[in-house]
Amino acid sequence: MSSEPDVGFDSAAAVDGGEAFEAVVVGAGPGGAAAAAVLADNGVETLVLERGVEAGSKNVSGGLLYAEESAPFALDDLFPGVREAATERPVTRNYMDCLGDGNVHTIDLSGVHEHDTAWCDSVLRRRLDSWLAERVHERTAAAGAGLLTGVHVDGLLWEDGEIVGVTCDELDPIRADLVVAADGVNSELAREAGLMDWDEPEEWFQGVKATVDVPPAAVNERFGIDENEGVARLFAGDLFEGVRGGGFLYTNRDSLSIGTVFHLDSLAAERAEPHELLDALLTHPHLGRWLPDEYEEREYAAKLVPDSKKAAHPSPHRGRLLLVGDAAGQMQAQGPIIKGMNHAVSAGGLAAEAFLEARNRRDTDAAGERYERKLHGSGLFSKLKPRRYGAVGRLGEREAVADAVDDLVDSRLGRLGVRVAGGVVGRAFNSPFLLGALPDTRSAYATVPTVLAEELGAPVDAENGAEPPSLEERIGDLTYDTDVGNAHIELVDDGYDASGAAVTACPVSADGFGGGCYREETVRANGDEERVVSLDTQPCIECGTCAVVAETEWTHPRGGKGVDFHEG
Amino acid sequence: MPEIDPAEHDVSELGPKVQSIEDPEELEALLSAERDGENRDAVITVIESRLDRIADDEGGGDGDIDLDAMSVAEIGNALQDVEDPERLRDLLDRETNGEDRDPVVRLVERRLNSVEGGDEGDTGGAVTDREPPEERHPELDHPTADKQYVTALDDGTYRDMWVYCETQAGDLLDVSRELLGKARELMDGYNEEYVDGNAGEDGGGEANERVVAMLVGDDVADHADECIALGADVVVVHEDDRLARFRHEPYAEVVADMARWGADPPARDEDRAPTPPSDADWRDYDEPRYLLFPATNNGRDLSAQVQAELDSGLASDCSGLSIEDAGISNPVKTGDPGSTRTFERVLHMKRPDFSGFEYSTILCLDNPDREFHPQGASVIPGSFEAPEPDPGREGLVVDHETDLDDDWFRVEVTEFDRLSGGVDLSGHDVVVAVGRGIGADPTGGMELALELADAFEDAAVGVSRGIVTGSYSFDAHVESYTAEERQIGETGQEVTPDVYVAAGISGAVQHKVGCDEADTIVAVNTDPDARIRDWCDYFVEGDLFEVLPRLTDAVEAGGLDAEAIADGGGGVTPGADPATDGGGANE
Fold first, then answer.
1. Which of A520, A521, A561 to mutate to test the interface with B (most CBs of B within 10 A)?
2. Which positions are tagged coiled coil (chain A) (predicted)?
C-alpha cells in the first residue's frame, strides 16, 4: 500500500479509471476455481469473473469427474469436503455395451476406469460449480478481491501490443499481472490472443445430454447398487446410423445423465440431428433396463468438447494470459474414457503455481513460460496429447485405412478373429496405452462394437417405453434470460453452402423446425431463388457448434443473459 | 561468511530469507557458499534474481536518474523508488544548479518530505504550501488544468437542496418527480435533525432549509405548481424560446447561474475576488448546499458541466441518498494526520459499482483549503418512488433572469426526430398474427393477414419471432408490418384481444406466453401435429393462403364477427376441414 495516496505516478489504473488486481480469473468452473484457490491461498489478490447468474449455470459436462493419483492437483485436496457436499455418486463400475443387430455384448472397463484413479464421481455442474464458487469467493475475498457473477469478459485489454488485463460488457476494463482464461471451450480470450480457433470440425466433439429424473431408491434398485455406489455405462455399435461417436449413462443421486458424444466433422457431414441421435439412445430397447416407466426429462443440454489429441495447445499462454482447461483444449477423450474437469483442475493449479514462483522472483511476466514447463514436466500434456497417437492415430483416421480395417473386421475372417479374440478386444479397450493410440474412426465406434455384439452378444431382452420430449418441448423447458435486441451470434454468411450445416448440427435446430436457432429458407427475389440460412439466437444453448460449422461472429451473451442450466 | 548457511535450509525456506537481504555483498557470499556447497540450481536462481533486483534498485548511484536527460514525468516515476533523503537532497542540488525546473524541484521536495515522514520541518499538520493539482502533477494532462476560469468559494455559505427538474417535449419527467419526493423527505429529516424547530425565518437561529426546484426550457413554468405539490418550497424558472430543446452550453450556464444567483465566481487565472450573489429576498447564501440531477442522458451531460463550473464534485448514477454526519480520518480531509474529524450534514450518495454487485457511498467533503459545494449527485431514474402530489402545498415561484449570450448557441440543432414509441398491439379486439407458414410467398401472406385485419372493425397485425429473425424478403408495402416491434411472444409483446388469429404459427411456448390470455385463439396450420393445437380454441387444418381469404370473406359478409367467435358462435366455414380442440364448437 502506498503511504502517499495522492501521489499516483505508479498507478496507471487511477489514471484510466479502471480497476487493477494482481490476478483475474475468467470463469468459475473447476479450472478457474482451482487457479483462484491456489492464488488466493498464497495471498494473491484475485478477482474471479463468471458470466453466469451463478457459477455452473453455463456449464455442461457428461458428468464424470476423475481424480488421478498421478495428478499434481486433485479437487478434494483444494476443496476439502467437495465430494460430500457437491458431487453425485462415486462411480464404482464402468461398462461398455456394444450393440448390434438386437444383441448386446458388454465389456467391463474396470481396468481402464481404475487405472491411476484415486476416485471418480458423477457430477452435475450447477451443483458442483456453485458450491466451489462459494468457497472460492470466501478465499479470494480474504485475499482482497472476490468472485463476481453475471460478468461477461468479452476481450483482452491491450497496451502497446501487450496483454495487460481484460475488458467486460458490464465493468470498466480491469488490469492484472495475471489473466487466467478458464472461460471454457468457446474461450473468447484464447481466440483473441490467437491461441485457439474454431476452424477445424475434426478437432471437436459435440456432446448432447438429457438429465432424466429418477428417485434415488429407483436408481439403486435398477442398477443394483447402494447409495454410495454408482455406475457408468458406455454405448457403441449400430444405433447411431454410422455417425462416429457413442453414448453414455451415468448414475447421479436422483437422476441419470444420458448423452451422446459425436465427432463434429462426422455429425456435420452426415447432416445428422443431435437430438435424434440422443433419442435413438434414449429409446433403444436396451436402455429400458434402467429407465423409469414414466420418462421425465429434467434438462436438455449440449456442449462442444475439444479433442485434446488435436486441439490441446502445447504452449497455452501469451504474455500475461494463461489458458486453463477447455479453453486450452485440455479435454482428454481417448476411446471410452473422457477426462476434462480433472485436467482443468491440474492446469489451474499449475498456472497458479507458475505465477507464484514468477512473482517470488519479481518476474511475473515469466508465469506463462513456467506454466508451460509445468504442463509438460508434470506429465499432464502427454496425457492430453500422447506421442503414440501422432504415429498411429492420425494414420488410422485416413478413410482408406479406416475402410480397410472395417472391411477386415467385417469380413468372415475378421468375424472369426473377433469371436476368437473377444477377450483381447476387451483388454484393448482397457489399456490406456492402446487407447491412446486408437484411431478415431468408425472402426472404434461402430464397426468393431457392432461385430462384437453380433458375434458374441446376447439378445437385448428389455423393452423401452420412453417418450422423450420433442426438440420444441426441450427448448420450451429451458430457462432463458434473452438479451432482447442484442444477438450474441451474428451470421456472417447466410448462404446455405457456408452455414447450412448448422441447421442440422446445432443441437437446438433441426431441418424443417421453425423454432430453433438455424432455419433454412428459400428467398425468391427477381425471379431468382436462393437457399439461405436464418438465425434466431433466442433458443441458443451456447455450445459453440455453429462457430465451427457455420460462418459466424460468435460471442457469449452478456453477463447473466442467455440460457440458465439448472442441472448442467 | 554469510549470516545464514544455505546448506541448512531448503529452497522454500531460503526464498523469504533471501528476499529480505538488502546487502549485495552478503548475497554474493551466500551465492558462493551455495556454489561451494549444495550447488542447487533453484537456490542459485533465487539469489541471483535477488541480486539483479537490488542492482536494479540501486542502479549504481544516481546514474539512473539523469536529470538532464529525463522528462518531468520520468523523474516523477523514478523518484518513487528513491528512499534515501541524502540522495534526494543531492538530486535537488543538481537540479537547482542545473535546469532548475520548478516542477522537478517540487517533485523532489515532495518526495523528500514524504520519505522523511514529517520528522523534520514539522508543519503541525496544517498544509502550508498548498498547490493546485495541475502544479502538483505537471506531467499529467490533468483535466483541471483546462479549468482555468473558475475556482471554489472560500468560506462560502451553502443552504437548501436544489433539484434540476428535467422536462422533455414539454412534459415533466417521472424522474424529476421522484427526485422532488426524495428531496422533500431528506430535507424534512434534515430540518428535524439539524435545525432548531423553534427558529423562525426571522427569529434568530437557523431557518429551515428548503427544497428548490429548477425548471429550464421554453414554456415550462406550468410545471411549477406540480413541483410545489410534489415537495418543492421554491421553484426557480428560466424560460426562453431558445431553450426549447436541451443544449449543453446554455443549459449549463443557466443552471450554474441559478445556483450562484448572478454572482461572479472567483477566478483561477487572475486574483479576482468573487462578487456576492445578486440581491434576492428569498435566499441569503452563495450556492446550494446540495444539488440533484436526474441521471438521464441530458441530466448526466448537464450535471458534469455544472458541478465542474461550481468547482465541486459529482457522484454520478446514484441510487440511494441520505444525510448524516461522517467521521473522517483521511488527513487530506482533516488536515491533521492521525485525527478524526466529524463532518456534519453530509449527503451520502450510494452508487452501484461493478454494475450493482457492490455499492460505494460517495461523500463530497470540503478539504481544509478547498470547499466542495454543492454536494452533487445524479440519480438513476426509478431509484425512488414518485410521491403523491399534495395540491394544498404552498411555495414560491421565482423567475430567474439573465442574459443568454448568443455565443452559447453556437451549436445549432438543425434537425431532430422523435422516435416513435413502437407499435402497441394491445387494446385491439382482434389480433391477426402470422408465422413462418407464409414462407412460400411471404409478401402474399402478409397481404392476406392485413386484409383479414381490415375486415374486422378493430384489428392489428402481429408476427411471430420466426418472421422477425427470418431471411424473408418482403415487398416494401408490407415490410413495416414484419419488424420486431410487431413481434408477439416472450421477447416481444403480450396481447390480450378477444380473438387471436394465429396463421402459420407452430405455437412454441415462447409464442404462447405472448397470446395465451386472449379470449379465443383460432389457429390455422397445415400441420395437424403443430404444438398450437394443444392450446388453441379452434384449429383449422389448412393452408393459410386458402383459409385466410375465406375468413376475410366471411367477416366482410357479416357471417363472422369477433364477438361471435369469442362467444363460440359465428360461422367458421372454411373449406378446409376444421378440427377442434375438445370444445366441440365445430360450426
1. A521
2. none
What domain range is A265 assigned to? 90-118+199-309+391-468
The amino acid occupying position B245 is: R
Whether chain A has a CB inside 8 Å of the CB on B443: the answer is no
Residues A74 and A220 in one domain: no
Q: Which superfamily, per CATH, for B160-320+373-405?
A: HUPs (3.40.50.620)
Give residue B132's pLDDT band: very low, low, confident or very high (50, 70, 90). low
Residue A51 and residue A135 share a domain: yes
Tell me the nearest-neighbour CA distance from B73 into chain A, angstroms: 8
Give which of A102, A98, A109 is closest to A450, Cα–Cα.
A98
Query: Could you read off the pLDDT of A3-44 as tens digits, one per residue?
Result: 333 322 333 333 344 689 999 999 999 999 999 999 999 999
**CA atoms within a 13 Å half-sphere pointing along the CA-CB vector of A168:** 28
> Rounded to whole angstroms, what are the CA distances from A118 to A75, B15, B53?
11, 33, 43
Domain count of the fold of chain A: 3
Mean pLDDT for B429-448 is 94
Mutation test of the interface with chain B: which of A4, A7, A170, A493, choosing the one with the most B Cβ atoms within 10 A? A7
Domains B160-320+373-405 and B430-580 alike in fold: yes
- For residue B491, name the pLDDT band (cuts at 50, 70, 90): confident
- 3-state SS, one letter per residue, for B12-50: HHHHHHHHCCCCHHHHHHHHHHHHHCCCCHHHHHHHHHH
Enter the C-alpha cell of residue B484.
420486431
Chain A residues with beta carbon closer than 8 angstroms to that of B114: 3-4, 7
Q: CB distance B332–A6 less than 8 Å?
A: yes
Q: What is the pLDDT of residues B36-78, one digit of tens each?
A: 888 888 888 888 888 877 776 654 444 567 787 777 777 877 8
Q: Is residue A4 part of a domain?
A: no
Q: Per the CB < 8 Å rule, is A9 touching B466? A: no
A114 beta partners: none
B354 → closest Cβ in A6, A9, A171: A171
| Claim to verify: residue A366 and residue A220 sit in the same structural domain | no
Nearest CA in chain A to B107: A7
Cell (9 digits) for B288: 446550494
Average pLDDT over residues B306-334: 91
CATH entry, B430-580, from 3.40.50.1220, 4.10.375.10, 3.30.200.20, 3.30.70.260: 3.40.50.1220
On whether residue A3 sits in a domain, the answer given is no
Indicate if the pLDDT at residue B576 is higher than 80.
Answer: no
Contacts of B139 in chain A (CB under 8 A): 9
Give chain A's largest Cα–Cα span.
86
Q: Which residues contact B108 (CB under 8 A, 6 or more apart)?
A: B75, B79, B88, B91, B92, B95
Q: Are residues A128 and A275 in the same domain?
A: no
Average pLDDT along chain A? 89
List chain B residues with CB under 8 Å of A356. none
Burial (CB count <10 Å: 0-12, 13-18, 19+), residue A194: exposed
Q: Looking at the complex, report in whole angstroms how far the Cα of residue B469 sits from the nearest Cα belonging to chain A.
A: 6
Contact A362 B471 (CB under 8 A): no
Q: What pLDDT, on a 0 to 100 scale, did the predictor assign at position B462?
A: 96
Residue B259 has pLDDT above 90, yes or no: yes
Same domain, A192 and A327: yes
A519 in contact with B, Cβ within 8 Å: yes
Q: Do A263 and A160 fall into the same domain?
A: no
Determine, for residues A523 and B506 on separate chains, whether the beta-carbon distance falls below 8 Å: no
* Per-residue model confidence (pLDDT) at position B561: 63
- Please indicate, yes or no, whether residues A503 and A548 belong to a single structural domain of this protein: yes
Which residues of A, range 133-192, sit inside 8 Å of B by Cβ? 148-151, 170-171
- A549: domain CATH number is 3.30.70
First to last CA, chain A: 42
